[in-house]
Amino acid sequence: MDRADQSTSPHTTAYNGARRVLTGNWVGASTVPSRSLYPHQWSWDSAFIAIGLRHLWPLRAQRELETLLAAQWDDGRVPHIVFNPSVPLAAYFPSPDFWRSSSAGTACGAPRATETSGLVQPPVHALAAWLVHRADPVSSRQRGFLRRMYPRLVAWQRYLTGARDLGGHGLASIVHPWESGMDNSPCWDPPLSRIEPVGSDTFHRADLDHGRADDRPTDLDYGRYVRLAENYRDHGYRDHDCGHPFAVEDPGVNALLVLSEYALAEIAGALGRDPADHLVRVEELTNALVKRLWDEESGLFLPFDVIAGETVREHSAAGLIPLVLPGLPERTARALVRTARGPRFGLGDTTRMVPSYDLTGHAHDPSRYWRGPAWFNVNWLVERGLRRHGELSLANGLRAELIHLAARSRYAEYVDPVSGEARGTRDFSWTAAVTIDLLTGGPSAAALPAEGRRIAVAVD
Fold this sequence. Notes:
The protein is mostly helical. The chain has a single domain, classed as Glycosyltransferase (Alpha/alpha barrel). Helices cover 44% and strands 4% of the residues. The chain contains 17 helices and nine strands. The protein has helices at residues 3-7, 10-25, 43-56, 58-69, 96-99, 101-104, 125-135, 137-143, 145-161, 189-192, 219-234, 251-270, 276-293, 330-341, 376-388, 392-408, 429-441, and strands spanning 41-42, 81-82, 248-249, 294-295, 300-301, 304-305, 310-311, 414-415, 422-423. The strands form four sheets. It has a three-stranded antiparallel sheet. Strands 1-2 form a two-stranded antiparallel sheet. A two-stranded antiparallel sheet has the order 4-5. The radius of gyration is 20 Å and the shape is globular.
C-alpha cells in the first residue's frame, strides 16, 4: 500500500468508488442499473440515481428524469422499462418484442417512437425531481425543469390514484409483482398461486446469463410473471376492462405515493401554485394507508390482496417504508421502530441492514432476490424514516453500515443482511447513488419534503 492509499479515508474511497460506478453506467441520456444484467433504463432506479447524481452533476440528474418521463404514456403511467434500441433483443427478457408497447398500448397512449414495458414501478419520481431542483435551483429555473416536469408528475400520480384504485378504497394497486419493485418477495406467493404459469421452455431468461441461479427467481415464478404480463399486454394494457388476476395494495408503493404527493406540494409552491390539492390528497392517502394496511398485531404495514379480499400475512421491508412519512400517527411510527429492531428484521442487533423479508419467515432466503437479502435503496428509505422520527442513533448506525457495505461489496445489487456478503450483480447504480447521497448530504440532512409538517390522520 502506498502513502496515497494510506491517507485515503474510507469515506473518500466509498465516494470515489460510487462516482466511478455512476460515471461508468451513464449511457448519454440516462443511467443503466447495470451494464450487464439491466442494460436499459428502469423507472424507480432512475429516480434513486437522480437523487445521487444531483450531488455530482445536477444537469445530468435533471436529464435522467427528463429522459424517463419523455416515455410517459398518455394515460399518465410511467413505464418501468424504457428500452434502448441499440441493445440486442437477446440481452434482456422480456424484451421490446414481448411487450410490443407501441402497438399493444395504443389505446392507452403508449409512445409510438419509443418502446417500453407496460408495467409501472413505485412512484419516487416527484421526490427525486424536487431534490434535484433543490440541488441547483438556478439551472433548474433557467431550464424550466420543474415547470416541465410538474404536469407529467401530476399525471403520473393521478394515474395511480385513479385507474389503479382497483380496491376502491383510495390506494393504488399493483397488477404484477414487478410493479412493487420488490419483484420476488414472498408477499406475492399467495396471490401468485392462483396464476397458471407458462412453460419454462417458452422463454429464455437472460438474467441467468449474468447471475447465479441461487440468487434469482425460480423458473416457476418466472412462468407466472410472464403469464401475468402476457395477459395485461393482450388486453391492451387497459386497467378498466382487463380483469386483473393479480391486484395487491402494497404498503411500500403507497407510502411512496404519499411522499411524492408531499413533493408535488413543494413543487407547486415553488412554481407559485396553490399546493392545497396535494396536501388534501396527502391526508386522504395517509388515512387510507393506515386504515387499510396497518396491522396492529404485527406492528407492520401489510399488503392487501384485492382479488381475494384479504390481508397477505407476510412481513417484508415494504411494511417499514411508511416510516418516511411525517404524517404517521406517533404510535404507529413507534411500533414500526420496535418491529425494525425486533426479531423479524433485527436492525441494530442481528442484522447490519434491514432484510427485504422477515428473518423468521418460512420463505426467508438471504441469497435469493427479494426473499431475504438487504437492498440499499430500501435501507436508504428506512434510514431517512428513522431520522425523521427521531431515532438518530439507529439511523446513524444504519447509515454507517450502508456506506461501508456499499464500498466493501463493490456496490452490489444486494447483500446478505447479517454477513454483508455481496449478492447479485456488482457496480449497481442505485447502490452507488444512495452512497453518494448519504456521504454528501450528511446525517443531519434528511433531504425529504415536508419537514416539520404534520397532518391530521384518523386512526379509529
